[in-house]
Amino acid sequence: MDLLKEKILKEGIAVNENILKVDSFLNHQVDTKLMIEIGKNFAAYFQSKNIDKVVTIEASGIAPAFTTANFLNVPLVIFKKQHSSILNHDLFETTVHSFTKNSDYKLTASKKFLKENENILMIDDFLANGEAVLGTSRILNAAKCNLQGVGIVIEKSFQPGRNKLENAGLDVYSLARIAKLGNGIIEFI
Ligand code: G4P
Q: Could you tell me where the beta strands, DSSP code E, fall in 22-114?
């Protein structure tokens, strides 16, 4: 998506070889017009999949997932992160390991909002190691929902996420695919 790539080149900061800072338009301050274009793009790509619901994980996935759900005319369900153990029979839960943050969290979703056989689209801001998507997929399996596709705003293609998701049979569509990061370097595939 050219508009997104231009924004990344203009405002993104490669903090090191692994991390791209995009807090001026995605992770902290949000460019609402860009989010609307992102939502249109994802909705057009996944239009034929008969999506019943969009899901994302709090917090930074919410803005692009919201606009996508709006253009697909379906609800958005926000999966929650809990940092302490909880036991609640009304929730699906799974443990996710973040390699970027070197920590675990419990990913949860209310059973109320996931019904058997629903077609689900997951939207997230970054794809790094794929663990957030795999955790989401485990919850959707437990709910007997169908994960029809994964839409990613920024994919770090030099990290293992895409391969892991493709090996799990998932349809991954990324709007910007980064081949390389470094001091002052941002290169797309
Ligand atoms: P994975 O799901 O692909 O395995 O990713 P990983 O756990 O490694 O990443 C965890 C968190 O770090 C996610 O945010 C993700 O968005 C963020 N992240 C990963 N790589 C980058 C990067 O290059 N730049 C930025 N800005 N963030 C990155 P999170 O913990 O879920 O935070 P938030 O959604 O609450 O903001």
A: 53-57, 76-82, 91-98, 103-110
pTM above 0.85, yes or no: yes
Ligand 1 centroid to residue 111 C-alpha, Å: 25
Domain ranges of the chain: 2-82+90-188
Q: How far apart are the CA of 45 and the centre of ligand 1, in A? A: 24
Q: Name the fold adopted by 2-82+90-188.
A: Rossmann fold (3.40.50)
**In this model, does residue 84 exceed pLDDT 80?**
no
Q: How far apart are CA 189 and CA 178, in angstroms?
A: 6
**What is the C-alpha separation between 119 and 146, in angstroms, rounded?**
5
Alpha helices in the chain, H assignment, sequence order: 2-11, 32-46, 62-72, 131-142, 161-167
pLDDT of 137 strictly over 80: yes
Angle between helices 32-46 and 62-72 (to 10 degrees): 50
Residue 143 is classified by DSSP as T
Which residue's C-alpha comes closest to atom 2 of ligand 1? 132
CB 32: neighbour CB atoms within 10 A? Answer: 9
